[in-house]
Input
Amino acid sequence: MTAAQSLNLVPFVSVHHMMQIILETGVERFLGELSAYIEEDFRRWEAFDKTPRVASHSREGVIELMPTSDGRHYGFKYVNGHPKNTREGRQTVTAFGVLADVSNGYPLLISEMTLLTALRTAATSALAARYLAPEGADCMALVGNGAQAEFQALAFRETLGIRKLRLYDIDPGATRKCLRNLAGLGFEMTACSSAEEAVEGAHIITTATADKQFATILTDNMVGAGTHINAVGGDCPGKTELHRDILLRADIFVEYPPQTRIEGEIQQLAPDHPVEELWRVITGQAAGRRDRQQVTLFDSVGFATEDFSALRYVRDRIRETGHFIELDLLADPDEPRDLFGMLLRFPGSSLLAEKERGLAS
Output
């Protein structure tokens, strides 16, 4: 990208480019740097436009738009969530995003965000855990070993030093996949036969299941004093993972309450049930973990500012790596008011030929 870049061209990061960026950067370094960008934007939370995501729900899943702006840049993500997709050989979640210049409305970046969403979700989880997990935590239970699991494991190692993983999924094949993918990367891993077995001895419990329904992945008796719960899977109305009793004894931390009360675990609670906003903890305006006995819950549903941070990070990375192409996306006539003239002047334009015939007659 250069100052002389034509106005019609917009940088585009494809899936292939994103994989090049991730691998060239290193997955854990990418997660750590991305977490820093997310934290930076949480620290200026009040600068952002904030709204619950715009969702179109169906029996099969959900399609959402997630917009935000800090007054200088505008970003949005298109994302779906269709749990049945895996049965058809498709991803449960796919996404792409746009970052634009508020001063003129022109896009600055278009990017794939299927991989990027997995990374930013894990980076946000680990960021929250830095403020909420018990000191010295080194063991995490991963309940739900699908597409998010490996990213969570690597993010928690990069940020908190987690090296022991206890894995469980209702589908043993998912656990085998996770074990295979993380083999040789320095983790001590145990495959468990139940969620109850997985949480034994874990300081942190991450739930990341995909079923689009009210579910009880964890019950109150499974959560010991001092545990931090990273609840990732509940992310739309009618979809939860935790028994209500856990919520009633935990200190609950959320991204944006108006959205989380619709989509998160706390949809099970009264609309005025007290929760704390993560940005207030990060900025020192509210307490995170206070003692070793406290049960903390990060009710993570994902929020637009995190995607904004991720797009900012990728835009900065492609300046260094060059892994992108330029799309001829925006009409850029010689005279801004003469859009029709572009059609007339296009080589071989049938309109121009018709016009010339009309003038000749």
Q: What stands out?
A: Residues 19 and 104 are 31 Å apart (CA to CA). Residues 114-132 form the longest helix (19 residues). The mean pLDDT is 94.
